[in-house]
Amino acid sequence: MEWLQINYNYLLVIVLLMIGLWAMIGKNNLVKKCIGMCIFQNAIIMFFISMGVKAGSTIPILNYTKIDGVKTYLTEASMYANPLTQILMLTAIVVGVATLGMALTLVQKIYSEYGTCEEDEILEKLN
Amino acid sequence: MSQSIVSFTPLAIVLTSALAVIPISLSGRNPNLRELWTFLAGFLKLMLLFSLLEPVTKGIAVQFELWKVLPGVSLHFSVDAFGLLFAFVACSLWIPTSLYVIGYMRGLKEHAQTRFFACFALALSATAGVAFAGNLLTLYVFYEILSLSTFPLVAHHQDGEARTGGRKYLTYLLATSIGLVLPAMIITYQMTGTLEFSSMGIYGDTVKPGTLLVLLLLFLYGFAKSGLMPLHSWLPGAMVAPTPVSALLHAVAVVKVGVFCNLRVITGIFGIEILSKTYLDTVICVIAGVTVIVSSLIALSQDNLKRRLAFSTVGQLSYIILGAGLAQSYAVKGAMLHISMHAFGKITLFMCAGAIFVASGKKYISQMVGLGHKMPFTFGAFLIGSLSVIGLPPAGGFISKWLLLKGTIAAEHWPMMVVLLGSSLLNAAYFFPIVYQAFFGKGILPENENVKEAPLACTLPLCLTAVISIVLFVYPEPFLTLATLAVGE
Amino acid sequence: MEQQYPVLIVIIPMFTAMVLTLAGWFKPAVCQPLAVVGLLGSFLSAVATLLQIGAGEVISYRLGGWEPPFGIEYRVDSLNALVLVMVSLVALLVAIFARKPVEKELGNKISNFYTLFVLLVTGLLGMTITGDAFNLYVLLEIAALTSYALLAMGRGRAYMATFNYVILGTIGACFYLLGVGLLLIKTGSLNMADIGTILPKLVGSETVLVAFGFLMVGVWIKMALFPFHGWLPNAYTYAPTATSCLVAPLMTKVSVYIMLRIMFTVYSADWIFNVIQWKPVVMVLAVVAILMGSFFALAQRDIKRMLTYLIVAEIGYMVGGAWTGTAAGLTGTIYHIMADGLMTVCLFMVIGSVVYRKGKAHFESFKDAFQSMPWTMGALIIGGLSMIGVPPTCGFFSKWYLISGAYQSSDYAFIVALLISSLVNAILFIRIVETAFFSATPSEIPDPHAHHEVDYADSPVSMLIPMWVSALALIAMGLYTGEIVTRWILPILPGGLI
């Protein structure tokens, strides 16, 4: 139970990952597959973000005042949240959006080609 | 051999015919010029071979390193007496065969003659490469080149039958060399760290007999060109090729390369001593002995002349392997000599078969009754070729068979002596009726009444090789000396 | 200047891609020459980098001057230098080759094609050169996204095939990212070499094991190892000619390279072969991949599709070789990455030429090809021999090392699978050559002596030259095997192998 209190974020991520994976592999509708992909990628983003979280932390920006001409820091390095994961995820979000865009474009093309987004119907038309 | 010299000559010999491919292909529009190139290359090759004779007979190995492919393994040539013997056989037969090809191909107005001559020359290069190979990898490389360059020759007619034969040919040869020889070679290299031939063998005493047996079988069957049963059936299948191809390649170059490789592996990789110590020589003898007898029996039942000759070849090849398997110096000498003797005899027979086909269009023995009077030279040569293959005087085959028999006696291998004698009887049984029917048979086919001898370009080479077969009986020294040297006496 | 070669390899194609977008607005005709020039620059830089590297040396290039492990580092040792040369060479050849087929198949999208093409190469080169695990992910996605777009240009069935690839490819990339995240939690580092120094202290950690699992499954999906190969044949078959020529040889090979990096730089040979017991399972996957790829290839009538199944088999070669845990096997894998890249591009270009001339690549298209397309068929024979493994082509030597490795580690099933695959390849190529050599099918036997004239209609010179360069490279590489292995491969083999 204690483990759960500390690590509930991972549990959430796992649940989201499974939902996404199931939708990507199991769903018949191509748009739903895209939605699953989106959930899957966002779960990973949450995973990264949550690993950098620290209770009571603040943004990693130098913050100081000058008292009598001497620099006095208001925040210390130990109070910062890990900025690395957030920066990484900025990139990952961009990648995710691009992939989703690509996938949706393809779905549109498929729809105009076969007139449906259901995988089994498309496969029928292919054969 | 302790001494060795480095010389460019082995490479030059291999390259002469390979480079001849270029002028041959370029002068495709002018057939006479094209054939001139073939002959030029042939004579040049023979001359170069003679220049190697002197050092080799003195016991000096002629070396040439071609390329270092892997750390510790290179492609290199090393000419010893056995290799030179084989190269002589192949190259000296190239010239009469080329003459014969001209007569045959022009007589039948065959298509794609340029491609034919080009592949022919390439195949000869590969054969020379195999003969001079200094280690197993080099041997393997040229072995594969030979398989590939002869495919267009076998499938020359490009019809359904040629397709089947060609497919069988290539599948058998590639499948066995990749599936069996390649792993055996790599395992050998992993165990010993070398692939060089050595008369003592390279395995040493540490390898278990069971492993040796597996490797031996992989090598023996892997070089499927030697036609050991049950991997022989490509050989009769490849008889769809034009007769000159059958003559040179399937009686001389290709199949002999197979047995040459087997002999090299037996003497150079395993070593005679290790084989007799582990009783593996008996395994070789049994495999070869069975092939000898069974193929002779099959040959008896064939009516297609070329197929009968093909099965006869299968049997004769196994004589050679058998000789090596006896692990006795007379027998090994006999085996090496049989490569040359059988080559001259069998090429005569094939050329006769081709000449009969050119002159009368007949392929089947039953249709050749009485033809002897119409084509006396051809059938006379056929008789001499048969004598040589059977092993009767006054033909060269007698000497090699005599040595093989002497080997069985010296090794006290009585069952093998029975095999040799029995098979000779069978040989006589499938050759003599052909000649007898041709000369003394009654009831010549009506359409054969007007048959004349084949063109001079066809008849001349076969008479030539027949005469050489007889000469080799009287004067076998050139090959005998080399074989004696190779055995190391 | 010398120190800048590593970054030039990636920067040149990246800027070329930008220029191409602009140039495409005004004059699509200049796109192909521009792309060739850009890729040539990249290729030359890669060669220069390779020659700079001494035995066992590592060139470290700090992007933006940030010190590793904080900044992104480009790390070049002779392993990825070799892969870089192979990738840039193949890309250059395909760019030259692509001119005619692209004009024919994608007439109105020339500029888009070349932009994506060069961007894809940028991604692949970046993946190979980078020493940063997250940077690798980004470049992986760049390569993947551009390849989706390029593959989907095939229209029709290509859309559905590409969509499946998008889904699976995304799963693969995300798994990789998850693995990287888990390693980040444990080690706090993204620099692969840096993680490699920290991981030995975390031997018993389950997180590290799970991370390895995610990373491996991720790259296996990307490289289409059995059982994750489902997406590959369709996606590559329906793609435009020029796309499949580029994507087929490179995507999977670079993924294999990444697997090697993860296995031996991030993790260690000792950990993989002594601590975890995955080897038997992976070897089974490799063996099944080889056998299945070979047998499915046998069943195909479309030669392009047949080749895609052969890729699946070749992946089995490389994974199996690396997982034998022997120096010889790993040498074979590294050598085969390059050999297979060149073989595949050679064969795909041959098929591309046939498609260009005859419209399809079925067996029937090859009828009489020896007379009508003699040069193309010559290249096919060399490529085929290399696939079969006939010396002196390089295919023989990769088999030599792979079988040696498998023999040392007693993986006899792998040896048998390799041999069976060689035999199947032999049958496949004999079949093609036979069809091309004989004019008639067995049912319609013509007069054997009749002259059968077929018009000479070989591919254009711009297609023949790259095809023959790759074919001759196969032989040259085979002849220089000893040199390549001793100079570049042996010094970087990791410790802990048999």
- Write out the strand line-up for the largest beta sheet of chain A, numbering strands in chain order: 1-2
Strand share of the residues of chain A? 5-15%
Overall 3D shape of chain C: globular
Oligomer state of the chains in this structure: heterotrimer
Annotation field: number of helices of chain C: 20
Q: What does the radius of gyration of chain C come to?
A: 22 Å
How many helices of chain A? The count is 4
| Largest beta-sheet characterization of chain C | 2 strands, antiparallel
Taking all Cα atoms into account, the compactness measure Rg of chain A is 22 Å
Largest interface: B-C, 39 and 39 residues
| Biggest sheet architecture of chain A | 2 strands, antiparallel
Could you give the count of β-strands of chain C? 2
Mean pLDDT metric of chain C: 88
Q: How far apart are the first and last residues' alpha carbons of chain C, in Å?
A: 40 Å
Describe the structure.
The complex is a heterotrimer of chains A (127), B (489) and C (498). Chain A is built from 4 helices and 2 strands; from the N terminus they run H-H-E-E-H-H. A two-stranded antiparallel ribbon of chain A has the order 1-2. The relative contact order of chain A is 0.13. In chain A, 69% of the residues lie in helices and 6% in strands. Chain B has 489 residues and is mainly alpha-helical. Chain B has a domain at 279-489. Chain B contains 19 helices and 3 strands. Chain B has helices at residues 9-26, 31-57, 81-108, 113-132, 136-154, 160-192, 209-222, 234-237, 243-270, 272-277, 280-300, 305-325, 329-360, 371-374, 376-390, 397-411, 414-440, 456-474, 477-487; strands at residues 4-6, 61-70, 73-79. Chain B has a 3-stranded mixed β-sheet. Chain B is globular, with a radius of gyration of 21 Å. The mean pLDDT of chain B is 83. With 498 residues, chain C is an all-alpha fold. In chain C, 74% of the residues lie in helices and 2% in strands. Mean pLDDT of chain C is 88; it is low at 441-450. Chains in contact: A-C, B-C. At the B-C interface, strand 2, helix 5 and helix 6 of B face helix 17, helix 18 and helix 20 of C.
